[in-house]
Fold each of these.
Amino acid sequence: MSTQQQGYTGLWCPACDRAGSPARLVRQMSGKREGMLLQCPNGHQTTYDAVMRLRPRMDKPDFTEKQPAGTIVLPLWIHPEVLEAFKRKFPANWQTTLCSAVTSLADPDSVLIEGEAARDMAAIGVKRGREVLGLAREVKELREKLAAEQAQMATLRAFFGGMGLAMPQSANAPAPVPVPSGPPTLVDGHRNPSLPPAARFQDLVDDGSGMLVPANGGPGPESPFTLDTGIDTGNPPAAPADGRPGFVTGNLR
């Protein structure tokens, strides 16, 4: 006989739990004023509303996922560590959640925020989708306010300029800070190390064979690319890159 037929509610009597003799509450009848009446085999009687205020111990529902109608079963490429993490995060409905996630990704209007960007956003207090939307709306409002103020300043500047007057400045306005056109050439009497390396030559000329060589005879610039000639240099081969995500390998930025 099922627990539903016996009248069991899945709730345990709080008084019996405190006494060390656990017993389930059984549904009795529904009163017009009291609501659903519950009673345990040890004689403790209460209402559903009253026992829920006590936060009673409850049975975990026996939930079995069912394949949504109209869906198909498809093999999936996934790292085993990712699958285990996914099951830990959604233990009761991981397959249904995965189906919903793939459906959302296929929606052309969906926005995906990956782990690295999500962690950067969490660092400034943005952790949920509604917070992202709120931040976007706030940025939009600030941009519109700034555009309106810039248009107002342009109108005032044209007004005073038409009268041959300079734009008045507020007494509390800070003095404009000069913006350097670029990094300084010298730092502490030496060449600034942040500047790009100086060119080794200025011009290239044809050496007669169709190849371009430095006009000053010096060596050419070092190429940022390397060519794989297939010749064994004696160095061990590089280890294959780990394609697993950062939250699995611990490589988080």
Amino acid sequence: MRVQVDNPLSSPSVGIQEGAKNERSILGLFIVGITLAAASGQFDRFGVSSQIWLLIYASFVYLFAVNYANVKVALKESWFLLLLPSLVIASALWSEDQARTLVAAVQYFFTACIGIWIGANVKPRELFVVMLLATVVGVLLSLVAAYLYDFVNAYQMADFDGAERYLVGIYAQKNVFGKTLFLLTLSLLVLSFGSRWLLLVYPVTGLLLIPLLEVKSASSLICYLIILSLPLFWLAMRNKKIGFTLIFSLWIVFLAGLFAAVFADIDLVDQFLGGLGKDSTLTGRTYLWSVAIQSMDQHPVLGMGFEAFWQPDVYDSTKLLRNAEGNIITGFHNVFLETVVATGLLGGFFLMLIFLVSLYRCSLWFYKTQSAESLGSLYFVVVTLLLGFFDNVVFAQHELFHIILIALCVMSYKQIHRSRNNNNNNKESQ
């Protein structure tokens, strides 16, 4: 007698479970998109940033509960990512402004946890899709703000004039808008590799150079110029002969231009900074860095406490900085100095650990898979590391680059092990 066995995958209960899982996945991606938009400062001008972040916190508490198993594995594999956030919270014990340090430290810790959840539950391509959508919305809203001046004035954009007002749009600062354009370009290129839309993407990325030049943010422009080499590496990876010839030719042109500049006694740094309206002090950055180096001596091991230095009623040096510059200063424009001043050499070590492990993991991911997502992730880590010398990109609560860096560190480890498992399965089948 023939016994019919029902396929468990075709049962209604399993179908309902799979549907619920898909709904949770879509909800999770939507929350991630809102988080990336909020971290890029898209809600700051609308006066609802605090409310949005409270909703994000509540949403991720739910997501942590739903996906506890994945997060538990990620924490076991990447526990070191919470060393610096834990030290930041502990710094409230010796901070001169304990209340402010504790509130900001909890936000910073939760920001790192958000990055861990994203890395544990979101696929690489999904992350770049959500990143693209979040940045496109911000840029489009900024373009709307460029033409609807009532909209601009309604959201306190009067302090920006001319091209800067046009290009900052809904963002609070021009370098924030510049970094958003960088992430848009990165995600657009990564998603276009291997698709039929690749040839259409290149002109778009070229057009994005126009607003970057008008914004006159040196760090953002350098990031964009670095990212333009991404297609060359992809081409070299797919066609080694053509790619090598192209890269070698560009190096010859670069060295020839450098030799010509030296021969003509042209200071390229001054010319570059002058074209962007900057001076040799990098808009006062070198002065801030000297103050940071002097401040390290006060608390070299554990630092002054997270964000404690920037309270003018606590440290006299902060008062002098504000008076000398004529405006409010909230950072040293250098993530390494910022970290050491706040959390000492121990915090600086934890920060470098995050950077180095992320760089190693993304490099190994790219070496094993040579996928577009791995190449884009590697580029992001390298650019973030370089940006750290000119801006505080990861040592602040609700910082976009911090969330993405943590997510890629966790995600790359998963992809490396998945690649190893696939190779082992292929060997066994042979």
